[in-house]
């Protein structure tokens, strides 16, 4: 799933490619992807791209006073095409193509989504606050306003909620998902299931520092990369996420996993849980 660093880099890459170009057409290949009807997609035709930005994990393409907002969800991506086919795409349940944006010089973007679970969402709005997911977003962790005290207040307000879930909750902190929450907790040496309001001052300091370094460094590494390079960059630099059975780079212990119905998390027992493996949530009560 693309998270804050990848969407930030996508916005930067697309800004250089799209700004000043006119949108000729937006072809919808997966009708379920479009979540709005007024203004229609056709309202973008013939308008110039004013800029490309990000709100949490939402990509925002500003076109002629309107906003084409894309949430890539679990398996979505944006692929640049130097030349798009002359014929519009045909809707097909077997295709990964959700939409195609055609520009006035014949280049364009393919918005794709792999797999059968279709959650990618597109919106055409006059104000980004009209997108429900954006209206609910918490603070962006890369802004100067996201101080250590702001994080401490968030954790206290979350009560006994597990810190992993708090980090992933977009209405609490914008942009962090499953992968980077694993990385943050590993860097801060915290159990993913520790109660949010039980963190002491030193642990809050460590988590805030991890957000600044792990997420900040990922953004800095990703800047300047083309969309085609971002997935590989993300995977290569993960310490524990997606590395079950491999060696923890901090201590040499094995990276372990807890599986859920539709996701999983990875952690190091030595670094994060005092050497105690966490039980699978589906089988028994979690070990704190």
From TrEMBL:
Key word Glycoprotein present: no
Cross-referenced SMART domains: Fapy_DNA_glyco, H2TH
Residues annotated as domain FPG-type: 239-273
InterPro entries, per database record: FPG_cat, FPG_N, H2TH_FPG, Ribosomal_uS13-like_H2TH, Znf_DNA_glyclase/AP_lyase, Znf_FPG/IleRS
Key words, A-Z: DNA damage, DNA repair, DNA-binding, Glycosidase, Hydrolase, Lyase, Metal-binding, Multifunctional enzyme, Zinc, Zinc-finger
Domain Formamidopyrimidine-DNA glycosylase catalytic, chain residue ranges per copy: 2-93
Reaction(s) this enzyme catalyzes, per UniProt: Hydrolysis of DNA containing ring-opened 7-methylguanine residues, releasing 2,6-diamino-4-hydroxy-5-(N-methyl)formamidopyrimidine
CDD domains the record matches: BaFpgNei_N_1 (cd08973)
Cofactor(s) recorded in Swiss-Prot or TrEMBL: Zn(2+)
Keyword Amino-acid biosynthesis: no
Recorded family membership: Belongs to the FPG family.
Protein name: DNA-formamidopyrimidine glycosylase family protein
Protein source organism: Nocardioides imazamoxiresistens
């Amino acid at each position: 799933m693309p998270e804050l660093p990848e969407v930030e880099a996508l916005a930067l890459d697309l800004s250089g490619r799209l700004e000043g170009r006119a949108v000729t057409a937006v072809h919808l290949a997966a009708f379920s992807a479009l979540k709005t009807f007024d203004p229609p997609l056709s309202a973008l035709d013939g308008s110039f791209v004013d800029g490309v930005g990000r709100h949490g994990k939402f990509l925002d393409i500003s076109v002629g006073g309107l906003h084409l907002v894309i949430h890539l969800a679990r398996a979505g991506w944006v692929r640049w095409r130097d030349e798009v086919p002359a014929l519009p795409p045909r809707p097909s349940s077997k295709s990964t193509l959700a939409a195609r944006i055609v520009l006035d010089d014949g280049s364009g973007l393919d918005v794709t989504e792999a797999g059968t679970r279709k959650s990618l969402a597109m919106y055409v709005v006059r104000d980004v606050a009209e997108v429900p997911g954006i209206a609910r977003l918490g603070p962006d962790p890369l802004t100067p306003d996201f101080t250590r005290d702001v994080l401490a207040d968030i954790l206290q307000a979350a009560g006994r909620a597990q810190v992993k879930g708090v980090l992933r909750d977009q209405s609490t902190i914008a942009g962090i998902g499953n992968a980077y929450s694993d990385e943050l907790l590993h860097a801060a040496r915290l159990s993913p299931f520790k109660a949010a309001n039980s963190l002491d001052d030193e642990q809050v300091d460590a988590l805030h520092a991890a957000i600044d370094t792990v997420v900040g460094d990922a953004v800095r590494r990703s800047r300047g990369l083309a969309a085609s390079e971002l997935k590989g960059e993300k995977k290569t630099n993960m310490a524990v996420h997606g590395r079950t059975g491999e060696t923890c780079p901090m201590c040499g212990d094995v990276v372990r996993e807890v599986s859920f119905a539709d996701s999983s998390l990875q952690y190091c027992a030595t670094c994060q849980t005092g050497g105690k493996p966490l039980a699978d949530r589906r089988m028994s009560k979690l070990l704190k």
